[in-house]
Design a protein that fits this description.
globular, alpha/beta, 19 helices, about 25% strand, about 500 residues
Amino acid sequence: MGGVSHTSLSPLPSSDRSDIAARLRRALLDASFTADGLLDLLGAPAYAALARSETVPALRATRGDTSLEMLVRLFLLQQPVPHARVADVLPVEDALESGWLTRTGGDEVAASVDIRPYGGPDGEDWFIVSDLGCAVGGAGGIGSREEGVVLGVGGASTTLAGITVREPVGSALDLGTGSGIQALHVAQHATRVTATDLNPRALEITALTLALSGAPAADLRQGSLFEPVRADETYDLIVSNPPFVISPGARLAYRDGGMGGDDLCRTLVQEAGDRLNEGGYAQFLANWQHVEGEDWQDRLRSWVPRGCDAWIVQREVQDVTQYAELWLRDSGDHRADPADYQARYDAWLDEFEARKVKAVGFGWITLRRTAAAEPSITVEEWPHSVEQPLGDAVREHFDRVDYLRRHDDAGLLAGHFRLVAEVVQEQVGLPGAEDPEHVVLRQHRGMRRATKVDTVGAGFAGVCDGTLSAGRILDAIAQLVGEDPVMLRDRTPAQIRLLVEQGFLEPVE
């Protein structure tokens, strides 16, 4: 994720001693130093407080002398603990020799890195390694402003992991791997994993994360964007939580990409198409500029490379003042000298003003390589709550794109459909009115969409169970309501197409 200067950061454990990592892993698991174990020990309020970088509740909950309490103080709260007590739980001498632990004053030892338990999607017990004080849930939030600092798991990391399509693939690329969380996920369903980062420290930490989590080693390569990838290399899956922050300059490697405006995200998306195998996915988190006089959706459509379907979802928009304040707080500048804070704030606003940026959008970008003559590009705003994980919903979106591309209106009428699970119907109108003003279908899974339909659309969706073709259902509705069946067949396919596109109806083939 950028940056090569990290000389003043603490030395990292050796990644060459996988035997030490395996022994350390066993010891941590034996002591229940896991996501479930922490929740049981700390309780939900203290556990949630750690995610806000508030440590007092966790310190109060670990005043005893159990092995788990000691490990929480050591690795999550960065408190020195007695050497003799650690020796009861961990292979302490080997951990000291390989650099996982360091000696402090007196007869105490301290952790050299943050180690945060992380529960995998299928109940796996994983551990995410990051720089001291820089794991979300660690002792101080982002506790360093060093250029090459490597963070742990944050909301962006878990969002990307949740939306990634999970299916067996031969090759996967984690671009800008950071602490290795995405590489750890894709290692579960990819035969070959390549992880890249401009920051060599991030590659070292990714190796530690994989080893301590019991995952296969990845092919680790240093470089920016696709530079470490050979010209003849392509992948079935590309994931990236890049340094997408639109900032004046490149102070912090983990967030600032070093390119002007949103050029880094644009470049990443545009270059990904040539790196995908047919049917392969590329999935990114990104920021993009809302520029005066320019449609933000058109801006993003222009990013999509040839030969790719795309689904782009804007989840949030912030005006430039909110955006600047968010990232100034992220780096702790709000706690610095007031004059320095004001100068940095001014610099952000100067940058936005020069680029005529009025707001910044955040969201997800998914590409899929396709041989279709006319690729599908969907750009939408969806700030509402969703149900993670969404990987299956993303794959199903593109499956529906393929289906609709293959079927014209006549094909839709000949098709069979089923109403998806957990869709409810809401009727909206004035109290006491005989007929509703409109009918809303609402999903309670996945994207949790809601869409208006007319009474024919609601009736059609309600009887779709896969047994009758769409045309035969419409003929029955026409007879019921006294409408010309030919006219009904003529005007309804557009509504059927919308219900399929948005995932309310699934084709039964």
